[in-house]
Automatic annotation (TrEMBL):
This is DUF8149 domain-containing protein. Residues 3-68 form the DUF8149 domain. It comes from Haloarcula limicola. InterPro entries: DUF8149 (IPR058462). Pfam families: DUF8149.
């Protein structure tokens, strides 16, 4: 394991806190869940930047095609 990650950091935005942070791809789901649990009583307030989500969805769809 090195500090250099192959996967991009994912921007997570929280409109309520007015924060924007970048989280490692592997950790993004738990980071969002943790934030929402700790600061918003479990409401889904923070989320992955929707623009990036679209790009990721496209890329994941392409990647999945490789495993067919
Ligand atoms: Zn928040």
């Amino acid at each position: 394991m090195t500090a250099d990650e192959e996967l991009p950091k994912i921007p997570v935005v929280c409109p309520a806190c007015e924060t924007r942070s970048r989280v490692a791809f592997d950790d993004v789901e738990s980071a969002v869940a943790r934030h929402n649990e700790q600061l918003h009583d479990g409401d889904a307030v923070a989320e992955v930047d929707p623009d990036v989500m679209d790009q990721l969805a496209d890329r994941v769809a392409e990647d999945l095609g490789l495993y067919e």
